[in-house]
Amino acid sequence: MDASINIPEIPIPDELRGTVSITTLDRIYNWGRRSSVWPMFWGLACCAIEMIATATSRYDLARFGMEVMRPSPRQCDLIIVSGTVTKKLIPQIVRLYDQVPEPKYVMAMGACASGGGPFKEGYSVVSGVDQFLPVDVYVPGCPPTPQALLHGFITLHEKIAQQSIKTSPWYGREPIEPLPIPVLGPDLINPRDLPAIQANANRPAEPATTAA
Amino acid sequence: MTESPAPVLLESLEARFSPGARRDDRPGFEGYIVEAARLLDFARVLRDELGYDFLSSVTGVDYLPDGRMESVYHAYRTTGGPGLVFKVQVPRDNPVVPSLVGLYPGAELQERESWDLLGIRYEGHPDLRRILTWDGFYGHPLRKDWQEAYFEEEGKPLKNRWPEGRVYRIEDKVPFHHNVKYPAGWTPEGWVPEGDNALYAALGKISSTDQDAADSMDTDQIVVNLGPQHPSTHGVFRMVVRLDGETIRSLKPVMGYLHRNHEKIGERNTYLMNMPFTDRLDYFCSMSNNFGYALAVEKLMAIRPPERAEYIRVLMAELTRIVNHMSAIGFLLNDLGAFFTPVMYAFEERELILDLFEMTSGSRMMCNYFRFGGLARDLPAGAMERARELVFNRLPRKIDELDRFLTGSEIIRGRCVGVGVLPREKAIAYSQVGPVLRASGVSYDVRRADPYSIYDRLDFDVCVRQNGDVYDRFMIRFDEMRQSLRILEQVVRDMPGGEIQTGKPQYQVRVPAGESYGRVEGPKGELGFYLVSNGKPNPWRYHVRAPSFINLTALEEMCKGNKLADVVVTLGSIDIVLGEVDR
Amino acid sequence: MYGIGILKGLAVTLQHLADSYLDDLRWLGRRYYNPEALAARQGTEGRGVFTVQYPEEKLPVPEEFRFIPFLIYEEGENGKQLDRCTSCGICAKVCPPQCIWIVRTTDAETGRPRPEPAEFYIDIDICMNCGLCAEYCPFDAIKMDHDYELASYDRKTRHIHDKQRLSRPLSYYAAIRPANFAREEALRAEKESAKEAAKEARKN
Q1: Are B132 and B117 contacting, i.e. CB atoms less than 8 angstroms apart?
Q2: Is the pLDDT reported for residue B203 higher than 90?
Q3: Nearest Cα to C132, choosing from B380, B371, B536?
Q4: pLDDT tens, position by position, A29-76
Q5: Which of B165, B318, B519, C52 meets the CB 3.0–4.6 Å disulfide criterion with B161?
Q6: Could you give the angle at which helices B564-574 and B307-336 cross, rounded to 10 degrees?
Q7: What is the pTM of this model?
Q8: How confident is the model at residue A13 (pLDDT cuts 50, 70, 90)?
Q9: How many CB atoms lie within 10 A of CB A2?
Q10: Residue A45 and residue A84 in contact, taking contact as beta carbons nearer than 8 Å
Q11: Which residues of C touch A117 (CB under 8 A)?
């Protein structure tokens, strides 16, 4: 249990780094995409203030082409989940994610969005937005300073630079299924959990006991 | 600074209502215990005869070992002075308390919160629905016998972290691998979600008395949802409005989208562990939040910090006020459509002040700087220089520049003057605090009315404006920034040397049993912390009286009859922060 | 005239615009990418462009800055790592969200506990950067780091820091927090000399 928590780093030799086969077309395509990633104006809690501070004159997101923060999900590329994700709000977050057109990216900013943060133990907090959305970059910190967030954006840009048109899911043949939207009941109901809930219907859900 | 009513009147209270009201004589407690049946008469006498016209806080406490629940009220007089605490004790298996909304409309949202989290039913409340959790949520979370899905132990520190701390992720240990827990035997088959039906019914119910019935034209009224995701920068807040054309007929705020169970976690934490959590309440003003909590615990422990610590505390609190008002002005201008240039200028100053906070406490926003009996560490070398440069040189210049930039603008005047008016009596009745209250003509500032720390020695004026519209709430923030500069000049000039902590710094604080209510005049208004201690290392009850939350009670009143575009501006002028509203 | 207020406001914006160019001229092209200019620009007398050109220029963090904790080891002979941590558990007890897990070493032969940590974990998805662990450690063993560039693609494999990832040498601590280091070393030296003096006194 303990040893498998962290898979040890697999060292990649220098000559193999960055040799994902990128053609010129991919390079131009990715350059265009990563130089103008438009985030969605989606500030949840304290991390949102650091995000706004990153957009103001001292740290200036406009240098990265990202100052266009559109409130409408139809016009943005990146959802920065900045702040604690609560159960009451997660249906709206998933709905917004479904509305963002491809290609889309999700950044979990802060400890709360990454893994629940200091409020994880409570009854109304989702332990990390990656329980519902596929996250591309995690930026830890509580809150991450604007420079840490900028480092996170650069990490995202590096990820975008590695992608290729040939293998991208948004140009593939299969339609991309929207994520199922959770429902608020006696507690949050994730539609993917419905079989498990049915199975457990006769057994009351026990709270976690101390670690064995 | 006025004295409380003559002791004769207060004593006669007990005589008048006896046996319906008696003094609370538990050691460490204060105030009156009133019987549920006599509560309304008692409150009426308080308000009309004794002059306690301002009901500041309504909350509840669960006393599981004694088998009862208490509903606790704090009332103040707008002319100043200490407050009056009164409580109603009801049995735990059927907690019913008469609602005070008829006498003090400001109790509306707070009673809903008490119902939601504790299950105390308020009879006579016009719209008793859940507020911080959602309709259909199972159970009342703040009850002592209600355990969350990730429950491990009653109080921290947890025993399984040391000496045998085998690391794990708690979601791997729970049946559904999520932070969820369903009632015994519940199955989703045949279950229908409650949704927002009760909310939309309330929208129609409350305003059925207004005069749209007299409207002769046969127009449809539509319901519009504003939020929780919206371009304004105030956070995840939702308003449901019923519109007749563009005019607002009724408005219901919906909150709870950032409910982070601060109070439940507060009961599991020890007293010191709660300090960094208070940073995250009103995340613009972490120093003020720390200040309020430190005052509440110091009241229980009966200690006071040394002189230097008091001066540094006031320095940080007033700089925080400037930070907050700058941001508030910037965000109000955002809401007006001046997207981002005023924010840029305001945030430049904020960044310079945050540099000072980072230099001193280690973090820009989550300062965690105050401790019980003093401060965590002293000011480093260069901090006083920086503070002097800011206070005497940069900030006065920049505040004047922002004033020149914004206040004369005809667009701002046209959009803000006469919009969102809140008259004086309504402001007091709706328990408004802070700049909202003072812009409506009520000269109530906790720093003057009930001074704490060294404010009784400092020379400053309480800013008041008379009209109570958005423009006055905007201008009063400039006034308050200038008064803060006055205070800062005195503090920076007179900063003494010496110790910064009374007693040794320790992580296990001994807090005697009792209750205390510590309040500060935060930038958004009166921020209060209500603590009940039973002598153990963890608090028994920890409640935050959040100014933004209670200021939202008057939102409908301010917006009725205005246009939809004015709602956003009015909300901006109240200056809410969701971390405080939802806790 | 109607509109004077707006014009006055526009004058302020124009002033800011003019300042940004005038300031560039005053610095004669050396305005960016050197620390001296950065400090002047970020001070209270700064005018004109206020931006920090991250990542080419990084605003230096002050000494008290706290991000994720780290453990200090002293370098013994043969490059052996001597952890200062004695696994007393105070940091785990004082951490508000309880994100520190410590396994104390048990001596293999005697079965008694030894003052060394066998395992030490911090989950940075829970850590709130409050610094209480560093503040209350009686052995100056755990301190707050300055490194904030921790963004990653996968949290399940990288966000629980184990003892090896958390350990840094004492020289690193002295480099990032010189004033604190000097003060603590002075205190240690004082305690050492007081102990020596007491030993001498007992011998006589």
Answers
A1: yes
A2: no
A3: B371
A4: 889 988 889 998 778 888 999 999 999 889 888 889 888 887 888 999
A5: B165
A6: 170
A7: 0.91
A8: low
A9: 14
A10: yes
A11: 97, 125-126, 128
- Closest CB from C151, C153, C159 relative to A151: C151
Q: Rounded to an integer, what distance in angstroms lies between the CA atom of residue B477 and that of residue B403?
A: 11
Q: How far is B441 from chain A (nearest CA, A)?
A: 32
CA distance B244 to B242: 7
Q: Specify the pLDDT at position A6.
A: 41
8 Å CB contact between B31 and B73 = no
Nearest to C12 among B157, B355, B405 (CB): B405
- pLDDT exceeds 60 at position B325: yes
**DSSP calls for B189-205:** TT----TTHHHHHHHHH
Q: How confident is the model at residue A172 (pLDDT cuts 50, 70, 90)?
A: confident
As a whole-number percent, the residues of chain A with pLDDT over 90 amount to 33
> How many other CB atoms are there within 10 angstroms of residue B30's CB atom?
16
Query: Which residues in chain A touch residue C121, judged by CB atoms under 8 angstroms apart?
Result: 5
Beta pairing class for A78-82 and A105-109: parallel
Output the average pLDDT for chain B: 88
Q: State the pLDDT at residue B6.
A: 52
Confidence of residue A4 (pLDDT cuts 50, 70, 90): very low
CA distances from B225 to A95, B204, B564, C120 (A): 15, 14, 11, 49
How far lies B376's CA from each of A177, A188, B246, B363, C135, in Å? Answer: 52, 40, 53, 13, 8
Structure tokens at B36: 């549920």
The answer on pLDDT for A17 being more than 70 is: no
- Report how many Cβ contacts below 8 Å link chain A to chain B: 218
When scoring C101, C119, C133, C145 by the number of chain B Cβ atoms within 10 A, the one with the most, hence best to mutate, is: C101
Place of tokens 């009201």: B21
Q: How far apart are CA B510 and CA A9, in angstroms?
A: 46
Residue B46 has phi, psi (to 5 degrees) of -60, -45
Judged by CB atoms within 8 Å, which residues 86-115 of A form the interface with B? Answer: 86-89, 92, 96, 115
Taking each helix axis as running N to C, give the angle between helix B286-301 and helix B307-336, from 0 to 180 degrees, rounded to the nearest 10. 140
Task: Report, as an integer, the average pLDDT of B330-346.
Answer: 89
CA distance A202 to chain C (A): 32
The pLDDT confidence band at residue B554, using thresholds 50, 70 and 90, is: very high
How many Å apart are CA A200 and CA A191, to the nearest integer?
Answer: 15
Q: How many CB atoms lie within 10 A of CB B564?
A: 15
Other CB atoms within 10 Å distance of the CB of residue A176: 11
Q: Are B579 and B258 in contact (CB under 8 A)?
A: yes
A165 touching B (Cβ < 8 Å): no
**Residues on chain C touching B376 (C-beta within 8 angstroms):** 135
Q: What is the DSSP letter of B151?
A: -
Structure tokens at A97: 């994610």
Would you list the DSSP string of A144-206? PPHHHHHHHHHHHHHHHHT--STT-GGGSSSPPPPPPPPEESSSEE-GGGHHHHHHTTTS--P
Interface TM-score (ipTM) > 0.85: yes
Residue type at position B215 = D
CB contact under 8 A, B280 and A205: no
Mean pLDDT of A115-125: 89
How far is C-alpha B107 from the chain's CA centre? 13
> B378 vs chain C: nearest CA distance in angstroms?
11
**Of C71 and C109, more confident:** C71
State pLDDT tens for residues B252-310. Answer: 999 999 999 999 999 999 999 999 999 999 999 999 999 999 999 999 999 999 999 99
Q: Could you tell me how many residues make up chain A?
A: 212
Coil, helix or strand for B268? helix
In angstroms, the CA B532 to CA B515 distance is 4
Give the model's pLDDT for residue A203. 58
